[in-house]
Design brief:
The protein is elongated, with a radius of gyration of 25 Å. It contains 3 helices and no strands. It has helices at residues 2-18, 25-46, 49-63.
């Protein structure tokens, strides 16, 4: 048990010294690609006929609401 605790402490100390808190360039690239893919899928969904008509209906009802 003590060996495990010493190993965990050494690992944490190593992370503090190394300063491995951010992403590497490859992680940024993968994150950017994933965000672009998600944006493309979301754009396709929002501009589809069904969703477009639903959004127009919601906006039309909101503009015609009586206060």
């Amino acid at each position: 048990m003590r060996a495990r605790m010493a190993g965990a402490r050494a690992w944490l100390l190593g992370r503090r010294i190394r300063g491995d808190a951010g992403m590497t360039t490859s992680e940024y690239a993968m994150g950017t690609i994933a965000a672009c893919a998600f944006a493309a899928v979301l754009y396709k969904v929002v501009t589809s006929g069904t969703v477009s008509k639903a959004l127009e209906s919601v906006i039309g009802k909101a503009l015609d609401a009586q206060f």
